[in-house]
Amino acid sequence: MRIIYIHQHFMTNKGSGGTRSYDIAKYMVQAGHEVHVISGIYDTSGIEPMPWYKLLRRDNYDGINVTVCNTPYSNNMRSFKRMFSFFWFAVLGTIAALMVKKPDLIFATSTPIFVGIPGLIAAKFKKAKFVFEVRDLWPESFIIGGWATGDELYIKFMAWLENKCYAKAKKILLVSEGFEKRLKERGLPPEKLKTILLGADGSIFNDVKPDYSFLAENRLEGKKIAIFTGAHGKANGLDYVIDAAEFLEKREDIRFLLIGDGGEKTGLVQKVKEKGITNVVFADPVPKQRLVGILRLCHIGLMILKHIDGGRPVTPNKIFDYMFTGIPSIINFEGPTIDMVLADNSGVFADPLHPKDLAEKVEYLVDNPDIAKQMGENGRKSASEKYDRKIIAKQLINIFEDVLTDNSN
Prior knowledge:
The chain has helices at about 20-30, 80-100, 115-125, 140-145, 155-170, 175-185, 210-215, 240-245, 265-275, 290-295, 320-325, 335-345, 355-365, 370-385, 390-405; strands at about 1-5, 35-40, 55-60, 65-75, 105-110, 130-135, 170-175, 195, 225-230, 255-260, 280-285, 300-305, 330, 345-350. The protein is an alpha/beta fold. Helix 6 (about 175-185) links the parallel strand 7 (about 170-175) and strand 8 (about 195).
């Protein structure tokens, strides 16, 4: 197959974010398929920026053909700049997709929802099959999260584009069972939907060398570490972690480690200073290659999101990093993530409205190492059997082949 894989936030292992598209594309190439990725430039992606006057650049990573669109993006951008980045990527991504000769299939993965524009246009003009993957329910998540009312013009455009992508896609892939459930509730045909989780690349967790230098740099030697990795934005609600840490300030053996960046990080750092607590450590984003060595020395993985009524339908990729590392997780939101973790007995739930409960769950796992170890081993076993990206790549290939052989309208 010749596949166009559209993902604005494509990242390599040199970056400090989710590398699912890179891993999947790599394994598809190894399986003998030709993959053309169309990407933007996330500031933590590991992809080199380019001069302002250059629109496109051709790169190659592990046999993956990558067309980089000169559309910078950062979690620290204000809303207007983010929207401009999304729209500009839609323009350049369309040009890049139309430059690929005779693709068999167009695979667009959101967020942002605007990746659907080059996907739809390329599928039409190249007469290729279109598969759309949902990583978040835009614009519904904006409205539920309180960042939009639904009456804004750009939100209405997103809703129109979302419905267009669903209608034109031969298959709609979801990275969470919660998303699939929601789309069924909205009336989409069940046979068109398929959940394939984000997973993780299990190979990078093999023979990991612990990063003791990171512990020394951050004065974490000998501490029991509860780690959060990822964006520090409004949706993450990390004030909850700081409030929980305050309850454990007298526990000299416990530290909360927050690795990442985002629009809320400055305020979070200031809050820790104002409270005068010393058991919260902030660190800048690190490449995935280094992160696995840091995770190897941690004891608990934190899955934290800002509380909203009804829970969260998401299954973020960091849960699989924790599972492959072999550490138990604490999740503070209801939905498929905690359902999965409880089914595997690889973690526990913390009440999102009471930070003290998170503190108590951290203390419980630290003080009961045998239970924590067993949970970690349960998670690692489940991850290797079900959530390795080699397995996920095969699942996607099978779906793509089925789509290409299906001649129904």
